[in-house]
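re: ur question from earlier - yeah i can do the single chain one, its not a big deal. heres the input i used so u can compare w yours
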Amino acid sequence: MKKLLGIFMAGVSLASVGLGSTSVSAKAKDAAKIKIFMMVETKGESTTAIPDTADGAQMAINEINRAGGITVKGKKTLIEYKRILTGGTSTLAETATRKALDENPDILVGYIASAMVPGAAPLLKAANKPTIFLNTSASLSLADVATVGWPVSYRMRPTQSALATGQFNFMYTDIFKGKLTKIGLICVQGAFGDAGCNAHKAFATAKGVTIASQQSNAYNATDLSAQVTAICNSGAEAIISTNYPNPFAAFANEMINQGCKLPVIEGASGDIGLLGGNVVKPPKDYKFYAASDCQPSAAKSGTSKAFAEKFLKVKKYTPGYSVAIAYDSIYLIKAAIEAGNGIDATSFATGMAKQKYSGVCAAKYSPVKADGGLTTNILVNTSVVSTYDSKGKPTVVKTLVLPK
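and the output i got, formated as tokens:
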């Protein structure tokens, strides 16, 4: 039996999982009992992958294990951590989830794109695995029997419809002071983009704003010249974008190339492109705005500033929202396990309701009750709008409070 256990541990040893591993001593590996799997790609694994999410989670794992791990029933327990490459489609997410479940993790984190949810969520729900999703899919809600959420599924990000509310209102009220009459829409193809475009069209109708042009692109598109030409020649006064993860950079670069200076507000994709330096240095008269969950690199003091400085020193790049929510999600798991005094689903749900973790991206993460007494399982409902200088340095211009 001991021999078989040793073979199993070798198969999932932290040293064997490469970029997704945490290097610890043999003694520490033997003590590791809380299995947390990160379901995300990192840079180089696909044309759209970025390192942010994986790096944020890895930093938190390293810190927690160096401090002795997570306290469960009075005992410090190390985290056994593994990252599973999880592509951006439903089919790829299903394959990755099956692979993960074969190794029986205690808790899963990741699934950064809404398109992953249909393939992953039913499997995780059937296994009743505590899971923290890092996307904006409304289908994970518990307030509707037709959705795929379950009591120990949680979301670190607001739904896309809520984010769209904030984006539209910022452009309509803050930028145009209620005088916006025509807009252009650009949305990535798929559920995420559809949700964004549909929400923006509904808001436009309610405000009497005309959709001068609506365009779309594939999630891995690199040439958006036709879309830019169509919108910028349509008579639109502003552009609202719902793209992910990388096409916004191509869109913004083409706007600069064509000399189209319409104000644009994007969601988190804008932060990835602008903060990461993927957008050509825009002249000062270009108005690019991005609404992201948080902006640690713009913080002037406190936890967020300290984290941003620490991360930059270690990883040599400026952390955006994705780094911060991944980092927070791991510490949130620690807080929930310790508050619930266990890693089973029931204890985890109890702990998530009781925990008081104050993080980098949000001072408070907590599920709330919806109609019928069901939790919406969204842990945070704020977003920030940032602008960026020619070097990609962000400045927060507005904090949005969104509906859960």
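The chain has two domains: 2-158+303-382, 161-292. not sure if urs matches, ping me
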